[in-house]
Design brief:
With 377 residues, this protein is an alpha/beta fold. The chain has helices spanning 16-23, 53-58, 64-68, 83-92, 96-99, 131-134, 140-146, 163-168, 180-190, 205-213, 218-237, 265-268, 290-301, 310-315, 364-367; strands at residues 42-48, 70-71, 75-76, 105-108, 111-114, 119-120, 123-124, 150-156, 173-177, 197-203, 242-247, 253-254, 257-260, 271-274, 280-285, 305-309, 333-337, 341-344, 357-358, 368-369, 371-374. The protein has 15 helices and 21 strands. Helix 8 (163-168) links the parallel strand 8 (150-156) and strand 9. It is globular and about 60 Å long. Pfam families: Phosphodiest.
């Protein structure tokens, strides 16, 4: 399965919101956008979780409206190719090494932080690891709102005060929704009115179905058809002069072989914390054990993964330029899985370990997402 490194600084997910602001005449700085988009008075960005470029084109018959839009991509999403990293890159306009959200689970001040729930086990970490301090860089939404753009985020009700929203997507007005119907209503309401307007909408269900049943499964295809129907209705109802863009935060693969880190002693010897997700692991070693952990992980995974030291992962540019502030969040050992392999944890992550659909690594199926635009440039 082909692989691609993230193209940081050139047509990645981090470049989308700045390009949209440029299109509505409200650029954040004097730099030209990474890609040209048609000028408009208002812009809508709909992010469909799990909408990969290759998956969309493989199932274009199930999504004729989406597939018929002009594609200004494909974009790369960054590493790991997982929702918290991608959404924070989107929201901040920065690569992972600058914003510091580096995994589904990653170490912050000695804690293994689950970035989706902002928790460790059942413990809510929003007070101990304050999201605005874990990720202190101003977001694109904050900067746009401060510059006079009417900014609205439309996302599930339960995410309004989540750590991920507070860290990477804070800024502007938040409108919580429960289903596709109110998602559409709130998006359409957000583009009404004078002055430049930017609406960010998020839909999660395609990713959920892909995890549960596998990308391209019958259930996944039916869900894709629902997303396509939503797009058809939005295109019909959006007022003239509105730019609509659709993208994803990653694609997905169906895993067909796994190694269980919780039952393979060589993968746990000398390991203090094991973060990441099944397709991209951060291995935090006990003091003095990093070299042995690196050798063990390389030996066990062999050709199924690129297993490198922290220093090599940074030197290869996997996370983009890494600031000193977040360097120790990178694992002493980083494993990026090849093909359709995965490193699961049957004891620590029992549900996640059973899911056929996974993402996080460098395959083009995971890294590439579309940037679908209406009207076309």
């Amino acid at each position: 399965m082909p692989e691609v490194l993230p193209r940081y600084g050139s047509a990645t997910l981090a470049d989308v919101l700045p390009a949209l602001l440029h299109a509505i005449g409200a650029p954040l700085d004097d730099r030209p956008p990474a890609f040209g988009l048609p000028r408009a008075g208002a812009a809508v960005l709909l992010l469909v979780d799990g909408l990969g470029h290759e998956l969309l084109h493989a199932h274009a018959a199930d999504a004729p409206v989406l597939a018929g839009l002009a594609d200004a991509g494909p974009l790369t999403v960054g590493f790991p190719s997982t929702t918290p990293i991608s959404l924070t890159s989107l929201g901040t306009g920065l690569p992972p090494g600058a914003h510091g959200t580096l995994g589904l689970r990653f170490r912050v001040d000695g804690e293994l932080l689950d970035a989706l729930g902002w928790s460790s086990g059942r413990r809510d970490l929003r007070e101990r690891l304050v999201p605005e301090r874990v990720q202190p860089e101003p977001t694109v939404l904050e900067r746009a709102a401060a510059a006079g753009v009417a900014v609205r985020s439309v996302s599930p009700l339960e995410f309004r005060t989540s750590g991920l929203t507070r860290s990477g997507l804070r800024g502007g007005e938040y409108r919580g929704v429960a289903a596709l119907g109110d998602l559409a209503v709130e998006i359409l309401a957000g583009v009404e009115g004078p002055g430049p307007r930017l609406v960010y909408g998020y839909h999660a269900d395609l990713d959920k179905v892909g995890h549960l049943y596998g990308p391209g499964s019958p259930a996944w295809r039916w869900q894709l058809r629902q997303v396509d129907a939503l797009l058809a209705m939005l295109l019909e109802a959006l007022p003239a002069g509105t730019l609509l863009a659709v993208t994803g935060d990653h694609g997905m693969v169906t895993v067909d072989r796994t190694v269980d880190a919780d039952t393979t002693p060589a993968l746990s010897d000398g390991v203090a914390l094991l973060g990441g997700d099944p397709r991209a692991r951060h291995v935090y070693a006990e003091p003095g054990a990093a070299a042995d952990a690196l050798a063990a992980w390389q030996a066990v995974l062999g050709d199924d993964a690129a297993v490198v030291s922290r220093e090599e992962a940074v030197a290869r540019g996997w996370f983009g330029p890494v600031t000193d502030r977040v360097l120790d969040r990178v694992g002493d050992v980083v494993a990026a899985l090849h093909g359709t392999a995965a490193v699961v944890r049957s004891e620590a992550e029992p549900f996640l370990s059973t899911l056929p659909g996974q993402h996080g690594s460098f395959t083009t199926a995971e890294q590439l997402v579309p940037l679908l635009v209406h009207p076309a440039a």
